[in-house]
């Protein structure tokens, strides 16, 4: 009989080889708190804003603001977004069976849907057909009833809303054949090292024309799993999870963190740099960046009735800031949003003495609802023009902002895009490795008692 240790090693080597096709970053979790996360989603066809929102069961306004799309356009929810447009989908990330994931999305099957068309097209590779069939206990994936309600498990991570102890939000990004890690890093204003650390990667290699995101050799995540839970069932589950998952990579997006009390229903709100969030039943709009990562909230301009947004004991409204130059520095008083508590908008007056008076509030540039996808924006960051009139001004004593919403800046193009051309995702990979892999898992499972 061969040495079990060698056999095990061989088996593992084989398994690593086989599953080198796919990788997804997994975040173990233990509490039941949910957190904010983003999905990187590429439209498979022209869809209305409201249709994209209903695909993920999210608020259309939240979808628009997360992408810094101007919501003041008439009938913006019915605007048709172009196929291949890349969007950031804000989702709530929960903790299911010890792993961070989003399970709040359901999909109602339509005629001619198949599990793989739902996984690869409709959800842009964010889920695999295997995950769909597993999550919905579908014995025969070739038979789908029309109108069947499917749970769509989606990948997400939060890592405590921070990265290198700075606020951060995590985007689950499906790696495309045209991607390189460096380009992804550049696209999201992060560094290669950070991206590698976050994803526990030992190598940046993404081969030309390769549909696979991350090569397994040197993958620290995998090694961590190996060393920590080698002989546990958890290991098997992890490996299985990795095998069946897609080539997802994780991007960290610098964000503005809120500090609402725990009792607030929007506790933990995180707004990615360069975008907006709508909260308090469409009453409050918060923005982040571009110059600093301080959350700034003000009344939203949507036609909804809202409770008072005035700070107690002052005549300041939410978002108003008064500055007064004194000999000791700049006396800044602001009326800040403090979350939705007991169904009402909580505000907090916060005085502070700062060395210098702040300039006018700057807003992330807004873009017009996109109608086309530029072909040359595959790697490039958003070609969004800067909001004019936001230059730093040395106001000695003023109340800012004096205007409501930031002005609209006409867009040169979409937020970002993905080149045309068929993009094969991991789930399209030949079924053979998966099959062989299942055997390998069985083998490993079988070997455990021997090794022990
Ligand atoms: C999570 O972040 C908070 C502050 O944002 C910190 O107090 C806490 O210790 C962190 N928890 C972990 C597990 O890192
Ligand atoms: C925020 O995003 C802008 C571009 O939108 C970028 O120039 C800036 O460096 C980012 N800020 C941080 C702190 O990441
Ligand atoms: C700062 O301004 C607030 C309100 O304008 C005022 O009540 C407070 O006394 C000022 N503090 C200082 C140190 O000037
Ligand atoms: C919320 O309302 C409940 C009763 O309606 C009250 O007991 C509680 O103190 C309120 N909480 C806050 C933070 O105002
Ligand atoms: C305070 O903020 C409100 C809402 O944004 C705005 O309408 C008002 O003009 C601001 N007040 C002053 C004095 O600027």
TrEMBL record:
Q: Which InterPro entries match?
A: LysM (IPR018392), LysM2_CERK1_LYK3_4_5 (IPR056562), LysM_dom_sf (IPR036779)
Q: Which SUPFAM superfamilies has this protein been placed in?
A: LysM domain
Q: Tell me the first and last residues of the signal peptide.
A: 1-22
Which controlled-vocabulary keywords does the entry list?
A: Signal
Which Pfam family, any one of them, does this sequence belong to?
Answer: LysM
Residue span, LysM domain: 105-152, 171-214
The highest taxon in the source lineage is Eukaryota
Q: What is this protein called?
A: LysM domain-containing protein
């Amino acid at each position: 009989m061969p040495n079990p240790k060698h056999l095990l090693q061989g088996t593992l080597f084989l398994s690593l080889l086989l599953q080198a096709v796919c990788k997804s970053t997994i975040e173990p979790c233990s509490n039941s708190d949910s957190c904010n996360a983003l999905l990187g989603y590429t439209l498979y066809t022209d869809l209305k804003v409201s249709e994209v929102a209903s695909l993920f069961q999210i608020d259309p306004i939240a979808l628009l603001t997360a992408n810094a799309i101007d919501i003041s356009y008439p009938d913006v929810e019915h605007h048709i977004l172009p196929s291949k447009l890349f969007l950031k989908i804000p989702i709530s990330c929960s903790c299911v069976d010890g792993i961070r994931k989003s399970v709040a999305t359901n999909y109602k099957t339509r005629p001619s849907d198949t599990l793989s068309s739902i996984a690869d097209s409709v959800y842009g590779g964010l889920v695999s057909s295997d995950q769909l069939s597993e999550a919905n206990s579908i014995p025969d994936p070739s038979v789908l009833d029309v109108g069947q309600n499917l749970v769509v498990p989606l990948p997400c991570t939060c890592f405590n809303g921070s990265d290198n102890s700075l606020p951060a939000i995590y985007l689950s990004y499906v790696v495309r054949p045209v991607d390189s890690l460096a380009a992804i890093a550049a696209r999201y204003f992060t560094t290669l090292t950070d991206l590698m650390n976050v994803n526990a990667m030992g190598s940046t290699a993404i081969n030309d024309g390769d549909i696979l995101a991350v090569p397994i050799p040197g993958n620290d995540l995998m090694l961590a799993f190996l060393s920590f839970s080698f002989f546990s069932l958890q290991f098997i589950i992890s490996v299985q999870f990795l095998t069946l998952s897609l080539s997802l990579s994780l991007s960290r997006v610098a964000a503005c963190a809120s500090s609402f009390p725990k009792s607030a229903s929007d506790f933990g709100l995180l707004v990615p740099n360069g975008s907006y969030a709508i909260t308090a039943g469409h009453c409050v709009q918060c923005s982040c960046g571009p110059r600093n990562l301080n959350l700034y909230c003000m009344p939203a301009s949507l036609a909804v009735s809202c409770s008072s947004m005035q700070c107690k004991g002052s005549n300041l409204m939410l978002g108003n800031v008064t500055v007064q130059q004194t000999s000791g520095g700049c006396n800044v008083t602001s009326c800040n949003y403090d979350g939705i508590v007991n169904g009402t908008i909580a505000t907090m007056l916060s005085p502070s003495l700062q060395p210098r008076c702040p300039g006018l509030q700057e807003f992330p540039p807004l873009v017009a609802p996109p109608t086309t996808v530029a072909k040359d924006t595959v790697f490039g960051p958003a070609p969004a023009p800067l909001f004019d009139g936001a230059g730093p001004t040395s106001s000695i004593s003023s109340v800012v902002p004096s205007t409501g919403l930031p002005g609209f800046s006409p867009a040169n193009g979409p937020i970002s895009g993905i080149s045309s051309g068929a993009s094969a995702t991991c789930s399209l990979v030949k079924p053979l490795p998966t099959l062989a892999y299942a055997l390998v898992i069985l083998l490993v499972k079988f070997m455990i008692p021997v090794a022990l």
